[in-house]
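User: What would this chain look like folded?
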Amino acid sequence: MVALVGGPLSVVLLAALLAAGAFAWQVVQVRDDLEGALDQSKVLVRAAASGDAAGIQRSGADIVSRAQRAYDTAQNPLWDFAAQIPAARTNVLAVRAVTDIARTITSQSLPPVMTMMSSSGGDTGGGSGINLRPFLHAGAVIPTVRTSLDEASRIATSIDRTGVLPQISAPVDQLVGLIHQATPVLTTVEAHLPEILRAAGAERPMLYQLMIQTPAEIRATGGGVAQWLVLKVDDGNVDLLSLDTGTDLMYVDLPSRGFDTVNGSLIRLPAETRELYPRELTNWSSNFNMTPHFPTTVELFQATREWTDKPKFDGAFSIDPIVLAHLLEATGPITLASGETVDAQNAGAKLMSEPYERFGIDNAAMDRYFSEISAAMFSKLTGRQWDIATMWGQIVRSAEEGRIYAWFDDPGLEALAHQYGLDGTLPEDNVDATQLGIYFNDYSIGKLEYHLAYSQHATCDANDRTITVSMDLHNTITDAITSGYTLGLRNIERGIDLRTMMLDVLFFAPPGGEILSTTPEIGDWWDPRFRDRSGSDHSNPAESRTLLLAKGETRTVSYTVKLPPGDLGPLELRHTPGANDTAVTIDANCAPLFRSPEGSDNILLSTIG
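Assistant: Here's the prediction, encoded as structure tokens.
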């Protein structure tokens, strides 16, 4: 009797074990196929960046094949059986959904994208970019990609997450996050594809200036412009034509052409604007950005191109060392000829502090050091061995911190820069935004502001239609900093401690607004050059106050503005982006005064992300 019963039971048990083993093997296959598809997607991106048409087809076909195989495996009857087991049901169905998402995206999106990307391969003209002309047809591909993402998002949303294991739920969350990140980017690209391609030289070669501001010697839009790259972009091929320095321009190039770099003026400003700034604004390149109106900075550099008989720029961009540090998060570290490593954690110090202690007042040595880092960084970026999503995230981060500016001679491209908050302009009305800001200009002739930390706060009285903007400043420098290049050179002739920051603080009201008071009411120091000023820039009333910030000292600067009558656009609270992060807070009592888009916290810096 036992033999009769045990025999069939053994067969059933063996069959169940075999089925369980087969199912477990299929789960492993699904995992391997999905992970393999993810790995191949990175290979595909690298192949596209290098114009490897064969590699694009090979990787793309492998991704589609793996995703389809994973989906087919998950449709096996064993999975139907496993889904009937209550303890396993939601997890099995969740894995099935993941394979469906992968198949949906790859089967619908990849074939047309592969065709487009493959046609961009081949001859790149010997440059360091890719030929973008085939992407003129991307407008027909993007809707298909967006449709597949919408369908994938619908599948992900419909998943029952009850009791789903973290190992399964986490990849689903990652997929949903990627979809949500990609969708607005695709929407933006689709809306502005002609302009983007034009900027990338699809219609004609474009000449660009890439300024590198140095917040260690602070200026209104960041810091003194010591270096800039001159780039030629043609069909997406980026060539570094030169790496120029203010030292060469101001001490050699302009004087040799007869320009007076002490008393001259490269452009003519309205009297009310000229009075607001030190005269060095219009005659010395490291001071061209003493104004928060970035187009004026570009105009001044364009004037130097005329003086030196060089072609004008089609566009100009500005970044600072903190942007480079952020980008190193995506590219990985760079190694200099000396073996020294520059990475995301130490880039700020190596570009704004350490070299001054190392090289002292040897300006030529520092220029060579900075030039080597700039060239190595350019090589890293154009080498394209980095993840696009990570890079995009760091660019968005930098823009949101107000560290990226863009200007274009082309009105359509300039409108695009304005739309995404990258133009750095002082608006002449309050329709799109109501802009206020506090900005700093160093007057010490040093690199003291690497050690300047600050935060910004705004509060309002809605009944009086007033807003008060304050900034808490702290000088963190220590006695360990001894370089004459860092310490304040101008402080010597004024008998001021060399570690005391001499700051020209600019307070800006929006057009039609009135500055009622400033703190300090009167500046800390007056002499023929370093003194309080009043004026306006592009219809924005402004006041300047001189400020001395001693080593270890904390001070608060602030101003109160009577806002103009009528409807006001969202509050755009600007400040000089410094060497350190700036915390910005706005009291809720400001909300009634300003138009606020849904979900806005009334802070509008950049909408690039």
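DSSP finds 16 helices and 17 strands in the chain. If you want, I can go into more detail on any region.
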